[in-house]
Amino acid sequence: MAIKLALAAFVLVASLGAFIATRPDRFRVERNALVQAPPDVVFALINDLREYDAWTPYQFEVVPGLSKTFEGPATGPGARYTWVGGKAGDGRMTIEESEPGKRVALKLEFFKPFAATNQTFFTLTPEAGGTRVSWSIEGENTLVGKAMSLVANMDTFIGKDFEKGLANLDAAATRRLASTASVGGASTVQ
Fold this sequence. Notes:
This protein is an alpha+beta fold and 190 residues long. It has one domain: Alpha-D-Glucose-1,6-Bisphosphate, Chain A, domain 4, CATH 3.30.530.20. Helices cover 34% and strands 33% of the residues. The protein is built from 4 helices and 7 strands; from the N terminus they run αβαββββββαα. The radius of gyration is 21 Å and the shape is elongated. Keywords: Signal. This is Polyketide cyclase. Residues 1-20 form the signal peptide.
């Protein structure tokens, strides 16, 4: 009887492992929203990693034990944001490409609690009433990611954060636009 149970358990685990292995090797999550500000205002908030706390859904400033550093140029390619410690783990964001008013591409690396490297893209398209912002992430779907997708896929896991972040970006851009207008000029944003 014990041999039959062991054999059944082995078959079950092997079947589950085989099914997990058939899950997609890559993932992509994308959300978009209309931000009620011109592309240059939105771009300034995305292209400067020091501005992320104004809108990101990942509020690192409230994570106990976390330290963050900024390296490289203040904006654009080579700008780097590194975080270490706390519940957020360790990771780094680096701007790899930057096209003013149109696009920002970042390399997103996680070191702890798990290792992963992903690409993140922000695409800005002018529209009546503001800027359509598309925020996407793509990367390898590791074995752990494939197993997790049985419970909640990456779209479910990350999508709601992106939606919140885009709403926050809209609010931050609207505040930025209002503050530059109240100072007497909304034609340039740094």
